[in-house]
Amino acid sequence: MTVRYSPKIARWIAEREGVPLDADGSLTMEHPLADSDWGVRHVLQYGSEAEVLEPQSLRQEVARKLETMLTR
After folding, report:
1. Who's near 24: CB < 8 A, 6+ residues apart?
2. Is the peptide bond before 55 cis (omega within 30 degrees of 0)?
3. What is the DSSP letter of 48?
4. pLDDT values of the chain reduced to their tens digit, one per residue, 72 residues
5. What ranges do the domains of the chain cover?
6. 64: helix, strand or coil
7. Is the dihedral of CA 24, 33, 62, 40 positive or negative?
């Protein structure tokens, strides 16, 4: 999966992963994805500071999970 982390948290993740930041201070990373449930949990732990860019199916799963959370 491809995730974009906002500049607010990107530095911390970049240091942990040993990768450089993007020019705007954000970080776009690819993560292996064997389990979509893990992907959803991973992104949601960062709240609005992380966004799934690919795959589209995982973006939709995150949106469904958020919708479920809002309606409870």
Report:
1. 7
2. yes
3. G
4. 999 999 999 999 999 999 999 999 999 999 999 899 999 999 999 999 999 999 999 999 999 999 999 998
5. 2-71
6. helix
7. negative
CB 51 within 8 A of CB 3: yes
Rounded to whole angstroms, the Cα distance separating 14 from 28 reads 10
Distance of CA 42 to the CA centre of its chain: 6
What b-and-e string marks burial along 28-42, b requiring 16 or more CB atoms within 10 Å of the CB? ebeeebeeeeebbeb
Residue in this structure with the two tokens 């292996």, named with its chain if needed: 32
Q: What is the pTM of this model?
A: 0.90
Identity of residue 61: E
